[in-house]
Amino acid sequence: MTGSTLKMIALTTSITVASVAGTAKAADIVDTAVQAGQFGTLAAALSAAGLVDTLKGEGPFTVYAPTDEAFAALPAGTVETLLKPENKEQLTNVLLYHVDDRKLTASMIPSGSTYFKPVLASERLCITATAGGVSIADGTGEMANVIVADIIADNGVIHVVDKVLLPGTRPTCH
Length: 174
Prior knowledge:
Mean pLDDT: 85
Radius of gyration: 15 Å
CATH class: Mainly Beta
Helix content: 25-40%
Strand content: 15-25%
Distance between the termini: 40 Å
Number of strands: 7
Shape: globular
CATH superfamily: FAS1 domain
CATH architecture: Roll
């Protein structure tokens, strides 16, 4: 898949989600992300994984939402490979690694480093809150930074992150 194909999928997903949004409550996690304009790849991935309806549901949810730039920083071909129908389970696992089934605003994250359990129950994230901000260690041991916190939606909250979180080895949390 080329970049233009990915953009077309994201645009189609945005239009589809926006059309559905007119009949649903107005500001759920998906609608809020689509309206922000920096989550086209995330919207396309949610659609390909069949998770749009889930995140439009009652919730509550906390979503650590990677920007389009975060997806673009993955190795060449990664997004296109994940979006293929035969890789739906792997894509779903990556996306569920970004979701908590509670509404966690930034003020609810304790100071220091704490393990959090995403919806992908076999995995853990290490979230570190300091005076300088919030960072998240994923299964690769790399850190994502929360660049915008507390985008409130009707069914939860979005924290914008600058890296796609990837499952793997339990991160060190100290």
